[in-house]
Automatic annotation (TrEMBL):
<protein>
    <submittedName>
        <fullName>OsmC family protein</fullName>
    </submittedName>
</protein>
<dbReference type="InterPro" id="IPR036102">
    <property type="entry name" value="OsmC/Ohrsf"/>
</dbReference>
<dbReference type="InterPro" id="IPR015946">
    <property type="entry name" value="KH_dom-like_a/b"/>
</dbReference>
<dbReference type="Pfam" id="PF02566">
    <property type="entry name" value="OsmC"/>
</dbReference>
<dbReference type="InterPro" id="IPR003718">
    <property type="entry name" value="OsmC/Ohr_fam"/>
</dbReference>
Length: 138
C-alpha cells in the first residue's frame, strides 16, 4: 500500500506567512514575493531544496547502517539555479554529497540508494503527475 503524505497550508493574516500542518507537525513558510519584511521561515523553494538534501543524508545513513558501514559524518549541499528564460523552473539542480570515513566506491554505493529510492529526488528528476483543484468559498 502506498503511503499518503498530506500537508494543509493556510494563510495567517500576515501577508506572505503561511502555517503548514501535517502528521502532527506544525511549521511556517514565508514568501519573499509578498512579504515586505525579511523572512524568518523557509520559503517554498528552500523547503524543496532542503527536502532533497535531507533525503540524501537519510538514505546514506540508512544504507550505512544496513550494510554495517561506519560513516563518521556526511553532508549534502543542494544548489538549485533558477532558469533565466523560464523562472517557473530550475535550469539545474546539483546535489553534492560528502561522506566521511569511507573510500570513494563505498561513498558511491551509499549514494545509490538515494538515487534509486528517494521520492523527492525521483519526482524532480523524472517529473510526475500533478493536479490542482480549486473551490471558491463565499
Amino acid at each position: 500500500m502506498s503511503e499518503i503524505q498530506a500537508i494543509t497550508a493556510r494563510t495567517t493574516g500576515d501577508a506572505g506567512r503561511y502555517v503548514l500542518e501535517g502528521k502532527g507537525k506544525v511549521f511556517l513558510s514565508d514568501s519573499a514575493m509578498i512579504r515586505r519584511v525579511p523572512s524568518v521561515a523557509p520559503n517554498p523553494i528552500e523547503f524543496l531544496v532542503s527536502a532533497l538534501a535531507s533525503c540524501a543524508l537519510a538514505s546514506v545513513e540508512s544504507d550505512a547502517r544496513d550494510f554495517g558501514i561506519v560513516v563518521r559524518a556526511a553532508s549534502a549541499e543542494v544548489t538549485a539555479v533558477r532558469d533565466e528564460a523560464d523562472e517557473s523552473r530550475f535550469s539545474s539542480i546539483l546535489v553534492t554529497l560528502a561522506v566521511e570515513g569511507v573510500d570513494q566506491p563505498t561513498a558511491e554505493r551509499l549514494t545509490t540508494h538515494f538515487r534509486d529510492h528517494c521520492p523527492v529526488y525521483n519526482t524532480i528528476r523524472r517529473g510526475g503527475p500533478i493536479t490542482v483543484e480549486v473551490t471558491a468559498v463565499a
